Amino acid sequence: MPRETIGNPLSWSAQRLAGVGRGLGAALDGIGSHETSRPEVKQIGLEDIRVALRKGAEDFAALRTDVIFVVALYPLMGFVLAFWAFNSGQVHLLFPLIAGFPLVGPVAAIGLYEMSRRRERGEATNWGAALATLTGRVLGPVLVLGLILAVIFVLWLYAAHLIWAATMGPVPHDSIVAFLRDTLTTPAGWEMILIGMGVGFLFAALVLCLGLVSFPLLIDRPVGVQVALATSLAVARRNPGATALWGLIVAGALVLGTIPLFVGLIVVLPILGHATWHLYRRAVL
């Protein structure tokens, strides 16, 4: 009996360690591609976008409770970042934070893609099943792509800070009212706006092309980071008009969602996330 009492915890620990090892191995293995050929991409248009948005709204209506649990952290993070900007003398970074926060949106929508995939197949669609996606093969490439988007987000904030310092800085403003007054009523402020919009457009276009279908593809097929990114870029190249329209829709919806203290993102983000899955299904064979 004592040998069983001692042996069971040891056996249990060994099994857990082995499971962790297998999980890490699968995550690292997933960064590369089991399928090395890039999937074929299709031409899409306005009707495909309309259908994707309609199906995204239907998924949200059907999965509302579980979806809100998955995405609730996203607006909370946005509120925390805005609070930091207000209280750390970085008021000039408030708009870049709001405008650039959607750059990491595809990461937050990972669970939504899986829920749409499962609903499409008639499988269980609760939040536990969706979050369980982030294990094994999927975890590695998702983390790598998420890190890429996070780096782009930080670079955007750094670029925005440099633009502000070169035009309206380097002395920080005491309040948002003073900052807005100087921004909208001085030549330096308008110079900052114009340069910032141009640079911001480049960052947004880059993330749009990289994340258009890459995350849903990683969820759906055993491809790695390289194939996922190549496929996303191929969809954007073949469908420049549809890609631009989709980017405008996403940007406009996310901006509207951030206005009431980021609370609107609890509705906007799920619909866009589900719709992204359905757009992927219409764009990639």
UniProtKB/TrEMBL annotation:
<feature type="transmembrane region" description="Helical">
    <location>
        <begin position="93"/>
        <end position="113"/>
    </location>
</feature>
<keyword id="KW-1133">Transmembrane helix</keyword>
<keyword id="KW-0472">Membrane</keyword>
<feature type="transmembrane region" description="Helical">
    <location>
        <begin position="134"/>
        <end position="156"/>
    </location>
</feature>
<protein>
    <submittedName>
        <fullName>DUF2189 domain-containing protein</fullName>
    </submittedName>
</protein>
<keyword id="KW-0812">Transmembrane</keyword>
<feature type="transmembrane region" description="Helical">
    <location>
        <begin position="67"/>
        <end position="87"/>
    </location>
</feature>
<feature type="transmembrane region" description="Helical">
    <location>
        <begin position="245"/>
        <end position="272"/>
    </location>
</feature>
<dbReference type="InterPro" id="IPR018692">
    <property type="entry name" value="DUF2189"/>
</dbReference>
<feature type="transmembrane region" description="Helical">
    <location>
        <begin position="192"/>
        <end position="219"/>
    </location>
</feature>
<dbReference type="Pfam" id="PF09955">
    <property type="entry name" value="DUF2189"/>
</dbReference>
